[in-house]
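User: Assemble these into one structure.

Assistant: Restating your components, then the assembled model:
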Amino acid sequence: MENKQVGFGTKAIHAGNVKDSVYGALSMPIYQTSTFFFENCEQGGKRFAGEEGGYIYTRLGNPTASVLEDKVAALEGGEAAAVMSSGMGAISSVLWSVASAGSHIIADGTLYGCTFALLSHGLTRYGVEVSFVDTSDPAKVKEALQENTVAVYLETPANPNLKIADLAAVSEVVHAYNPEIKVICDNTFATPYLQNPLALGVDVVVHSATKYLNGHGDVIAGFAVGKKEFIDTVKKFGIKDMTGSVIGPFEAFLILRGLKTLEIRVQRHCENARKIAAYLAANPKVEKVYYPGLESHPGHEVAKKQMRDFGGMLSFEVAGGKEAGMKLCNSLKLCTIAVSLGDAETLVEHPASMTHSTYTAEELKEAGIPDGLVRMSTGLENAEDIIADLEQAFEQI
Ligand code: LCS
């Protein structure tokens, strides 16, 4: 695609595409192959030495995955992207590429449960020091910086309480201290349609593509996006040698298909979440709603500044605590009790016992994740139907 000034929806459909000169296929074919033949041994040697382009072996690259990587790099405004077989694969491939024994990472305490586990008792087993600080306050990040700090890791909006960090402010304090430190942002909840962390000073964006990017609840995948030099390290060391987190060509194809509708899907998710958040905020049986689009949300102003809209995720506490929250979920008929998010179906879950069960009770409290919190990934159904389902479920408690 020649014109870089085109809109997001156009980019999602056209960026990175390569013309199939053999058969003229409109959609990118699935190159379902583990390996690629060489014309002769010399050619194989040159490819391994990086002296000649072309594919070798799918763990090192695959045409279907390459088109997807170029597209996601374009959507995030990054030089390059690496696609991986899960969001956790992406996060660990990135962290293994920046950290080694003796290095220090700063992370927010509010993260997806397995990311928190990786940082709190995964990397620390191998001599990496991790400090958990409140990244919604750039001064706290500044205080925690050390000579051996290699990365600052955050999610915004964060899973599951939609906590917001000011990406420009955090990047500024970190890079003023040491421009080599990588500021890493998990952009899963926002998607590149709503937020572009790289444009705000962040060095590396990671994604669970399992969620909105694919959008159809049928793929596990992840991405890292950033400067080409760093992404090359993630590919040649993080993935190739450390995690082996390689996407299958079929999964890459499904994400390419999902991305074609990312813009219109996210618009609908945002519209539905806004209506549901307003309904919940006005409901006397609800104690508190966590949605960055509400003025009552502590991160509202920052979210307004750095996001195009407020996303499709929200959480809430039901009056009566955990028991009432569970009863509500169990009474829903249209909405489904399931983890994951960003799918066409509205999903509800209980973070303390599900996605965030990797936290101790004390850690949950510190991270601002109440025991009674219910998380909702608003789907693409009609908002009135989701609200009617909530209404009948509230009548049961
Ligand atoms: N980052 C965020 C913000 C996530 O929410 C998840 C998964 C991951 C990374 C990991 O991605 P995966 O390896 O699963 O592709 N979040 C989930 C959740 O909230 N429910 O189920 C999975």
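The longest helix spans residues 262-281.
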